[in-house]
Every structure is written in C-alpha cells, then in structure tokens.
Write a structure and sequence with these properties.
This protein is mainly alpha-helical and 329 residues long. Helix content is 50%, strand content 3%. The chain is built from nine helices and four strands; from the N terminus they run αααααααββααββ. A hairpin with a 5-residue loop joins β1 and β2. α1 runs antiparallel to α2, α3 packs parallel to α5 and α6 runs antiparallel to α7. The radius of gyration is 39 Å and the shape is globular.
Length: 329
C-alpha cells in the first residue's frame, strides 16, 4: 500500500508505532494488575496513558483506515480486528461498571448461606421534593461513588456490548474471507478467546473457540510460505494455552500412574511381579570383604619390599637374569 495508497500507508505506520508503545504499557499494567483510579499514584499515569493511546488508535482506525480498505481482504480483517482490540482495552481499564471486583468494600458481610440485604442502602428522598425524610446520624454524610479519573479522556460507560459486537464482526469476516490457517484469522480468534475469558468470564466459550480455531488449522488445505507458517504455528501455541486456561489442576490427579502400585513393577504384557528390595547401606557394608589388620598390613609390606629387592614383583621374577632376551656382553 506504500505506492498505491500512501495516505493509507501513513496511517497504518502510525497505528503500528502506537501499538508497539501500547503493548509495552499493557504488559506493565498487567504486572501491576490492580490500578487504583481514585488516587494520584504512579499506576494512575500509566492508566491514563493506556486510555489515551487506545483512544487515538481507535480514531485513526475508524475514521481513516476502515473506509479505505473495503476492497482489500487482509487489510479489512486486520482493521476490524484492531478496532475490536482497542475496545478490548477500554473494557479492561475503563469500563463502567468495572469487570473486575470493585475496590469499595461492602458495608455488611453476609453470613454463610445468606445474601446481603441491600434494601437499607436506598438513597434518601430529597427534602425539597417532600415526603418522609429519614435524617442521617450526626457526622455521617451520603456516600458518593467517585468518578473514574480518566473520564476527561473518554466517557465512562459500558463498553462490553460494543466490544462484543466488534469481535463478532471481525471473527465473521475472518471466517468468510480468510483460510483456516491464515495468521490474521488466528490472531482474531486468539484475542477473541482472551476477551471472552477475561471480560465476559466465559471460560467454556473461550476454550470452545480456541479448540475450533485449531481444528480449522488442521483442516485447511491452502498452502502457505515459511513466514506464514511460523506465524500460524505461534498462534496455534497460544490457542493451545487458551484451551487449558481455567481448567482444574486436579483433573488428572485421580488417574493412577504407571508403576505406582506398591511392590509391583508393570511389564509389557500387563502382568506385575514383586519388585526386588534394595539393600540397605548396612547390608552392603556387611557384604564387603574384611580389611586386613595392622599386623597383616605390616607383614605384607615387608614381603613386598623383599620381593622388590630380589627382583620379584607380584609373584613374577623381573631380574635381568630371568629375561630370555638378555644379551651377554
């Protein structure tokens, strides 16, 4: 597109650079994982930067890139996937209500087996409107939920329906226009599965989507070059990890291991025979030959010395006269 449409190419390069910076910010924010948006902390600046970058990227994709890629198959799918990705960031960091656990604790902790009674948390009527007035205790002011600190960058609203619709549209375009093993199609499926797990809390749907994407890869008959094969293999590995997310670690704990039966060693025919007990350290020491005492060692050393003087070593006569190859001079 650099030669055919330099205007589109310039915006694609801008989005590419923005995405590189945004990916580093998202990785850092994921490590923090808990961002307090009600106080001026270091994580708050990171939070604002993520929202601002996502907003600018969404504007470029929706207003400049998508209208110009209607006749390009791969660029069209990629553009719709980028739009869904930016809404995914909004849902993670700026959704109202938040998809994560609220930071404001509840006033009462319900007992086990009972739900909290929220009827006492109803707001009092306005005294200027008339009606019964329930005065608050002295010193207790009405509790107001603070607004998100990034509301000046982006309206705080529920972005889940919009993000879900964008992912559904991008996934449908990928299924229609691209082959099952195309890297762009696999990237759409990978992020859609992550969105379903993190934002919609649909673990089963996420695993089904990842499993179906892997099946489409193996059923695809289209050829690909080396670069596409490497990208597809990387996406398949990520989808394989998506299939295992949220699964209980105790699924395979009840399966007996091979050779786990006590006192038996399995064979190829399926029969088992008693295993040979290993000798203890004491038993191994008892099996060793006894070492000679000090008197025997001294007598043995004397005999060895006399043998060396007489030319005998280890019972063999090594004197010059015993050699058959000795030459008389």
């Amino acid at each position: 597109t650099n030669l055919r449409n330099p205007y589109l190419s310039s915006f694609l390069y801008k989005v590419l650079g923005l995405s590189v910076i945004l990916s580093k910010k998202l990785l850092r924010a994921r490590r923090l994982r808990k961002l307090d948006t009600t106080r001026d902390t270091k994580s708050l600046q990171l939070y604002h930067h993520i929202i601002w970058l996502s907003r600018e990227g969404l504007i470029m994709v929706e207003q400049y890139i998508i209208p110009m890629v209607a006749d390009q198959v791969e660029m069209k799918v990629l553009s719709y996937k980028l739009r869904a990705s930016f809404y995914h960031v909004f849902v993670l960091f700026h959704n109202q209500p938040s998809i994560h656990q609220t930071a404001i604790p509840s006033f009462a902790t319900p007992s086990k087996g009972k739900t909290a009674d929220r009827s006492s948390l109803r707001s009092s009527p306005n005294p200027m409107e008339g009606g019964p007035v329930q005065p608050l205790p002295p010193g207790l002011m009405p509790v107001s939920v603070p607004k998100p600190s990034a509301a000046f960058l982006l309206p705080a609203t529920d972005y889940v329906p919009t993000a879900t619709a964008c992912f559904t549209e991008a996934s449908a375009l990928a299924d229609t226009l691209l082959s099952g093993s195309h890297p762009i199609r696999l990237s759409v499926k990978t992020e859609y599965a992550a969105y379903m797990y993190d934002c919609l809390h649909d673990a089963d749907g996420s695993r089904r989507l990842a499993q179906q994407a892997i099946k489409d890869v193996y059923n695809a008959t289209e050829g690909m070059d080396d670069d596409m094969f490497e990208d597809a293999a990387e996406q398949v590995q990520l989808l394989g990890k998506m299939m295992k997310r949220g699964m209980s670690a105790s699924v395979g704990s009840s399966t007996p291991r091979i050779g786990a039966a006590e006192g038996s060693t399995p064979k190829a025919g399926g029969s088992s025979s008693p295993s040979t007990p290993r000798a203890t350290k004491k038993e191994r020491m008892e099996e060793l030959p006894e070492l000679p005492n000090s008197a025997e060692r001294k007598s043995g050393s004397k005999r060895n010395g006399a043998s060396k003087k007489n030319g005998v070593k280890n019972g063999v006569d090594t004197s010059p006269r015993a050699s058959p190859y000795r030459r008389d001079r």
